């Protein structure tokens, strides 16, 4: 699978691009530089040889040099990666908490007004383009009400906490730096909420349909017959069975969230890979864009792998296979 | 006579469906005493499962509707009048229920032991009303093993750790019974527990339930369509047709001298080894539509003794002989 | 089915809005910008950044252009993108998937592997990569979206083909001596068309969403074309002072996407045998 992914990115960056050498050298580069690039990346050789060198470069960490910034793509990516990771984690936690609870609530109160309201709200937030949410939030909370910052990851007036993991929230907690923690949290609020709002609709809808299925099952009736309190029936017996499909959804969602992150990061000036991707596109920086494509896709593949493992752990019926 | 354990009086229940209102129960009167097995027999669609579920209020409530005037008396209290949270207290430790398909009735993601332990913990917590504290897991585990031994499962330690899908049909049903009995209920409602099992396993389970009854003194309301099973396990039998009880008697009495034409038809349609040369007699017609049951005595379209007023007047369940009730205009 | 849609009022509302939008797009395509109050391309520096008023329903942008006119004129672009991408993906992906499912064996293996590879990329990310490789522009963005979208139809088509393959009806066709290609074309494709179409209706809203994001980041229709996503991007810098520049086109996208989603949902419920209440 990974081979396939790299193959496709390879094809895009060498074959689909009309003039790969020029694209990798940069639009302003001289002919000599272009030629040098062509030689270095073996662009005159047959495709399969090119692919071999491509893979070798990838694995050794040579993801190319950005003709725009002059820096190694891999350096840029690793610098921006923690910010995106942090944002994604917080957003997923919010989205999952909101989505799962609303989904369960809607399923338990099926066909009542609240159910329809939740379904509509979920659909609405899913359909709203990410920039609509982000811009509205910015407009309301940063410009009109002026209670939250409109961008950036932390205040430039406060010193950053010592770099342990690169995740600002974690680092400031670990070093006991309350000011930095406050700053990080405040800056995180709008982007995380925007990102969560976009994705939670999907979780809510899928949790709801999964729970509806489960609540129809005989074993739920048995649990009630045993005399268990309704709360226990729903949260212990029913939800536990619905978890497997929720996990699959979360994995699917991750891909969706990354796409949303690209827009959200740009609008909120969040220094992550998403913003880097947009900036690179605007600058027509091909190596950088291919690098981000690869990172995002690898992340999604990994998450799906984890989801498969989690699925096996959660559902004992699958384990024996 | 001592107060019956369970007394159903004029229980009426209907379901709202897209095709119309289904009159599932149309005035059921039934009692179950302490220490006895009452069989409830009838063809599919007569409402026997709904009746079983109604006792525990397990019918899904938006479509189901228990009509006023229905009384469900358990140990003297009218369950129909209890608020939902108090009703939940009756379930499990007062009245317990086992179902037809053990495969789908057991939660697939928890071990058998866990599910039995739930019943045990619930029972212990309800007993300690004044000081609810979590029971020791040792005690609970011990009781789980005892419950499994009670249902004659060899190697209970191993089985307790298994998931439902790892057990055979018969084992699953025993586990269900263990789970239901672990709460030490006064009444067990068994809804076709042997129907989904192979015949040999059926016999084992029935024997198990009979033995359990003697050991533990739990009454059983045994719901089935199979008269042969009734003969094996029941002390008294109630015959149900389109939402009403049409005959009720001791099991020997019923088989020897069935009074209601429907019961007679049912018994006649059983193949008997001693009468191999005779043709199997079938009851003419089919079970009527529950949305529009026939007026008067609902059996009259199929009854060869039907008289004029059977079409208009519904017969009441009357005691004809001691311990033998019938709802029929013939008597 | 009509009765069902009427029962599901939201879905019907969505359908009406979606239809209205399509009519609008069609009219604009045919008649051009004559129906709008102002020319969407003419710049007017005396009238920049005006808030919405009775003269300028959606206000004006930083170059003095009337936003309402631009939104209306830009309507067909979204529809163009969405319908072309979905229809071609359906045709291409559906056919490939059908053949793969029917022929089985190594053909199926290979096709499904390729499909899976494409599907492991997040949609937007892959579209971005292809779009930047072939350069910005409206047609190019459509091609990029095509690359991303066809595998979904391939997968569905293959699944449907698999279930039809083993039906008795197929046995008869084979016994009649029809060649493989003929069987697929004449028997399988028409049968899988319905589920594919239902999926396609739902998909239109997804394509519009992704397409608008592509334009937002600069890879779609180029200025001065009044493409909605691009308009949102252009208005970002003026958000605090002139929110209507970004928010209103973004809202337009939202309304269209929601309309198609609601309608698609209702359509899917109407056709889903499991959900049909007896």
Short key terms for the protein model shown above:
heterotrimer, A: 321 residues, mainly alpha, 14 helices, B: 331 residues, alpha/beta, Rossmann fold, 8-stranded mixed beta sheet, 5-stranded antiparallel beta sheet, 11 helices, globular
Question: What's the arrangement of secondary structure elements?
Answer:
The complex is a heterotrimer of chains A (321), B (331) and C (278).
Chain A: H1 2-16, H2 20-25, H3 31-40, H4 47-59, H5 73-108, H6 113-127, H7 130-144, H8 168-174, H9 178-215, H10 218-225, H11 230-267, H12 273-282, H13 286-314, H14 316-319
Chain B: E1 6-17, E2 20-32, E3 37-41, H1 48-55, E4 64-66, E5 71-74, E6 77-78, H2 84-90, E7 95-98, H3 102-105, H4 112-127, H5 137-150, H6 156-160, H7 169-182, E8 187-191, H8 199-216, E9 219-224, H9 227-233, E10 236-241, E11 244-250, H10 251-256, H11 261-268, E12 318-321, E13 324-326
Parallel strand pairs in B: 3-9, 3-10, 7-8, 8-9
Antiparallel strand pairs in B: 1-2, 1-4, 1-5, 5-6, 10-11, 11-13, 12-13
Helix pairs in contact in B: 4-5, 4-7, 5-7
Chain C: H1 2-7, H2 9-31, H3 67-103, H4 105-119, H5 123-134, H6 138-165, H7 168-175, H8 180-216, H9 228-235, H10 244-271
What does this structure look like?
The complex is a heterotrimer of chains A (321), B (331) and C (278). Chain A has 321 residues and is mainly α. In chain A, 76% of the residues lie in helices and 0% in strands. The relative contact order of chain A is 0.13. The model of chain B has no long low-confidence stretch (mean pLDDT 84). The longest helix of chain C is centred in the first third of the chain and has 37 residues, at 67-103. Chains in contact: A-B, A-C. At the A-C interface, helix 1, helix 6, helix 7, helix 11 and helix 12 of A face helix 4, helix 5, helix 8, helix 9 and helix 10 of C.
N/C terminus separation of chain B = 25 Å
| Oligomeric description of these chains | heterotrimer
Uncertain stretches of 5 or more adjacent residues of chain B: none
**The CATH class of chain B:** Alpha Beta
Architecture (CATH level 2) name of chain B: 3-Layer(aba) Sandwich
Output the structural class of chain B: alpha/beta
Summarize the structure.
The complex is a heterotrimer of chains A (321), B (331) and C (278). Chain A has 321 residues and is an all-alpha fold. Chain A is 76% helix and 0% strand.
